[in-house]
Amino acid sequence: MIYDIRQTTICTYASPVTQARHVLRLTPINRYRQNVQIASLQILPEPSQRREGQDFFGNRITWVSLGERHDRLTVKMSARVSVDAIVAPEGIATPPFEAVREEVFATADIGPMSPAHFLFPSRMVTLDPEIREYARTSFAPGRPVLEGAIDLMYRIKADMVYDTGATTVTTTPPMSFALRRGVCQDFAHIMISGLRGIGLPAAYVSGYLRTAPREGSAGLQGSDAMHAWVSVWCGSAIGWIGLDPTNAVLASDDHVTLALGRDYTDVAPIDGVIVASGGQRIDEFVNVIPIP
Description:
Order of helices and strands: EEEEEEHHHEHEHEEEEEHEE
Number of strands: 15
Distance between the termini: 8 Å
Mean pLDDT: 95
CATH topology of the largest domain: C8orf32 fold
Structural class: alpha+beta
Radius of gyration: 19 Å
Low-confidence stretches: none
Shape: globular
Strand content: 35-45%
CATH architecture of the largest domain: Roll
CATH class of the largest domain: Alpha Beta
């Protein structure tokens, strides 16, 4: 599947900003099953300094400095990306979750995609006891790891209400889990907390969903904005499998990956420091259009 992706992010400030430095994670890169044919990032006002690079996890980073006085920052990303459908194993054909847990604790790999980096608490994902017990219900002794993870995904979808006004970008998993409400970030963080709580590696993935649903299918929730889902490590023989708890589907060619990390703070699309007073508002517009 080939997509034309257009994202516009507008930050509007209550008072003029005199100086700003930002870290932007808004450019997709080539990944497994994903090929970026072309991508560009337009920033207004024009930065006085701009530098491109990658972070530890391989995400594309753009560092910018703005010295021009401004009351609005506009970032426009355009890309054409091809994504191959996933050929996932049957859940029952994956190793028992206990074997995966033992394997990851024995690993000596410290590379960017080592499961060891996605096993412990991170800045926004605590190992909450209540969420751990909730996740444990999906993992009876000897249950295949992917089968258990898919069951957990379905339960989160069934038990949580998608509500854009219930949480904020700083809401922690225990808070959204207590509410049983939230958005894709909350669904993903809850699932990650539960999986890590029982010793299974899980990563946070940010990206996009196709805007128009496939013929005969209902639209995916979260398709009108940036989206988030979970990547679960199923042992070295199988590797990472993407699961979308907001929609209770495997992440396949309806999902375009932008960035990957331990939680939202590793993949936040716009971060940084501004010199100004008052608040700010961020508006986001996303279109992911399939190319015939």
